[in-house]
Amino acid sequence: MTRVLVNKPQPLEARFAQERDRVQAAFGSRLRDFRVAKQLTLEMLAERADLHANYVGAVERGERNLSLYNIWRLAYGLEVTAADLMQELPARKGRR
């Protein structure tokens, strides 16, 4: 019987990694649009959301796969809902 390691992260298949990257980039772009519209710097938003400015910058560049909790924190910092940040994510491509 093969042993399964439960907490060891497994690499994504290429197609899933591309999809993840596309979603992260779209979220980051939307986050940046909200931040610029509110005339906030990265540092100001990071302070309001109680996150590090480097982390917020990485999210905006689509480099981070952030948690629901951090989405909620960023929404609070922007004075919008988490749903507002998630609203224009690309539709999932694939089988139905």
TrEMBL record:
Q: Taking every annotated instance into account, which residue ranges of this chain make up the domain HTH cro/C1-type?
A: 31-85
An example of a GO molecular function for this protein is:
DNA binding
Pfam families per UniProt: HTH_3
Family annotation (SMART domains): HTH_XRE
Gene3D superfamilies, per database record? lambda repressor-like DNA-binding domains
Query: Which UniProt key words apply to this protein?
Result: DNA-binding, Transcription, Transcription regulation
- Source domain of life is Bacteria
Question: Which InterPro entries does the record match to this protein?
Answer: Cro/C1-type_HTH (IPR001387), Lambda_DNA-bd_dom_sf (IPR010982), TransReg_Diox_bact_type (IPR050807)
Q: What protein does this entry describe?
A: Helix-turn-helix domain-containing protein
